[in-house]
C-alpha cells in the first residue's frame, strides 16, 4: 500500500512538473480514449489495405499508371502555359502592327523601293558642252529681258527703234 501511495505521489509530482512546462498531461480516461481511437484508425487502415490487395491496387503497374497520370497533368499544364504565351504573343504582335500602321499613316507617302547602286564606270562631266549650253541660255534670257524691259518702259520709242533696225 505504501508503494502504491508513493507511485501515485510520483505521478502527481510528474504531472505538476510537466504541466508547468506546458506539456499537456492526460488523465487515464483520456489515454484510454486515445488508445481506442488509435485502434479504430488502425483497424480502418488494415481494412483498406486488405481491400487494396483484393482489388490488386498494390500492383507495381499502378505505380507506373500513377506516374503516367502525373506526366499527363504536367503536359496539360505546359500546353495551357503555351497557349497563354501564344495569346500574349498575338496580342503584342497586333499592338505592334497597329502602332506601325498608325506611324505609317502619319508619315509621308514616300517609300524606298530599292537602294541606289554605285555606277559601274564613272560618267564624264562634258564640260565644253555644258559651257556652250549655259552661254546660249544666258544670251537668250538677256535678249528676252531687254525686249520686255524696253517694251514696258518706253513702248513708243522702243517700237520706232526696232522698226528702224
Task: Please give a structural write-up.
It is a single chain. By secondary structure, the chain is mostly helical. Among the domains are: 24-58; 60-105; 131-164. Helix content is 79%, strand content 0%. The radius of gyration is 55 Å and the shape is rod-shaped. The termini are far apart.
Largest sheet at a glance? none
Rg from alpha-carbon coordinates: 55 Å
| Helix fraction bin | over 70%
H/I helix tally: 5
Overall form = rod-shaped
Give me the strand/helix succession. HHHHH
State the end-to-end distance.
170 Å
Which stretches are low in confidence, meaning pLDDT under 50 for 5 or more residues running?
none
Number of strands: 0
Compact overview of the structure:
By secondary structure, this protein is mainly α. It has helices at residues 2-20, 28-54, 60-106, 127-153, 155-164.
Keywords:
mainly alpha
SSE order and pairing:
Blueprint: H1 2-20, H2 28-54, H3 60-106, H4 127-153, H5 155-164
Helix pairs in contact: 4-5
Amino acid at each position: 500500500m505504501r508503494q502504491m501511495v508513493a507511485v501515485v505521489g510520483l505521478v502527481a509530482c510528474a504531472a505538476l512538473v510537466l504541466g508547468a512546462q506546458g506539456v499537456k498531461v492526460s488523465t487515464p480516461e483520456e489515454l484510454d480514449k486515445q488508445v481506442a481511437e488509435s485502434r479504430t484508425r488502425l483497424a480502418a487502415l488494415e481494412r483498406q489495405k486488405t481491400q487494396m490487395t483484393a482489388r490488386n491496387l498494390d500492383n507495381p503497374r499502378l505505380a507506373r499508371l500513377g506516374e503516367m497520370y502525373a506526366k499527363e497533368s504536367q503536359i496539360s499544364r505546359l500546353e495551357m502555359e503555351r497557349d497563354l504565351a501564344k495569346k500574349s504573343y498575338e496580342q503584342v504582335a497586333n499592338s505592334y502592327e497597329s502602332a506601325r500602321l498608325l506611324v505609317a499613316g502619319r508619315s509621308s507617302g514616300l517609300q524606298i523601293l530599292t537602294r541606289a547602286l554605285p555606277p559601274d564606270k564613272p560618267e564624264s562631266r562634258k564640260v565644253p558642252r555644258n559651257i556652250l549650253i549655259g552661254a546660249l541660255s544666258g544670251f537668250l534670257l538677256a535678249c528676252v529681258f531687254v525686249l520686255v524691259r524696253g517694251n514696258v518702259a518706253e513702248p513708243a520709242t522702243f517700237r520706232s527703234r526696232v522698226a528702224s533696225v
